[in-house]
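lol so apparently i was supposed to do this last week
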Amino acid sequence: MESQKISLSERVQQVKPSPTLAVDAKAKALKAAGADILNFSVGEPDFDTPEHVCEAGKEAIDARFTRYTPVPGIIELRQAIVERIATDHGWQYEPDQVQVCCGGKHGLYNMCQALFGPGDEVLVPAPYWVSYPPMIQLAGATPVEVPLAEEKDFDLDASILDKYVSDKTRGIIINSPSNPTGSVFSKETLAAIGKMAIERNWVIITDDIYDTIVYDEEPLPHILDVDPRLKEQTIILNGVSKSFAMTGWRIGYSVGPKHIIGAMNKIQSQSTSNPSSIAQKAALAAVRGPQDFPVMMKEAFLPRRDYILKELASIDKVTCVVPKGAFYVFPNLSAYYGKKFNDKIIDGSVAMADYLLEEALLATVPGAAFGADAFVRFSFATSMEIIEEGMKRLKKALADLS
Ligand code: PMP
Ligand code: GLU
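anyway here it is w/ 4'-deoxy-4'-aminopyridoxal-5'-phosphate bound
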């Protein structure tokens, strides 16, 4: 074994690798080794990046647009983002209130580094996306989980917020539609959060990465529509990964108060510099061009969502909140915890996901990764054939437990 002579930082010892990416890597390795794995794990659209976007990337290479760009991204892209937001939502921003970065995940990282530090607490409604708590911890701050109830469709019950708030609370992360639940926060919830944020001077991070994938709830309630004053303390996180099936291009963006974007630019200038010049040109074609691609994807996801929900509803003792957006279902499988297969006890979501992978060849993500052990996440951004076969396997696997 290789010696481990050099010690690692305390910071890195606190965080775990991303569990969503870890399960995906495991599923892909098993598949490459010949196993008939059905992959419901990682959340990425199963569509190719649209042709006009790929063309713009190729043109950028042909034109040798291959040098450093300004740290926060090319002005045309920041201008196009500002225009897209004005058209879609009516919110007015300037290009210097936009930072383009290497994927939504990187935007969140820059934000946490620019905003939070030791002694700060940040409210994270749970179930949460796997990277929120580690990002907050990497900034030296403390994530404080606020539980969301399945019975309330994972909307936040603002009346409980007081229990989780202290004089160290610096802000809250909103993700609506949510990964992993697909739930949307109601107008009333957002109004209650907005009121507290104004009174207590919190920063609101609104992760809108799934805002083009909304099934039932149009128009989507948004914190910025609650009270115009919130614009001064809200930072939007978005990107083209989900809306234009561009997960590998690594382009995200943040939009918010100039001084916060400026601070994030300082971090970006000392870490990654600009995101890929070629990917920026491709993202420009996505943001400025026709917006029918996200609509087409959403229309393709809807029958898959409805099918998977119908199948889950037919399984004894399984409950599942209807996702109003995004492409995940988050069924509660806890009625099967405590049961056994070949003397191996299923004692929680990690054991359940392991069992489903080993015995049913189904790759899923355990709810524990999202702070909710009763559940297991399935991404339905995969083909109907895989979903049909996957649901058959899930039913059999659950029935085989005793
Ligand atoms: N926020 C949420 C809720 C997500 O699910 C993702 C997906 N990885 C991201 C942000 C970041 O997306 P990306 O870094 O791929 O642009
Ligand atoms: N957001 C996706 C997911 O939750 C991608 C994986 C990741 O970035 O963690 O599966």
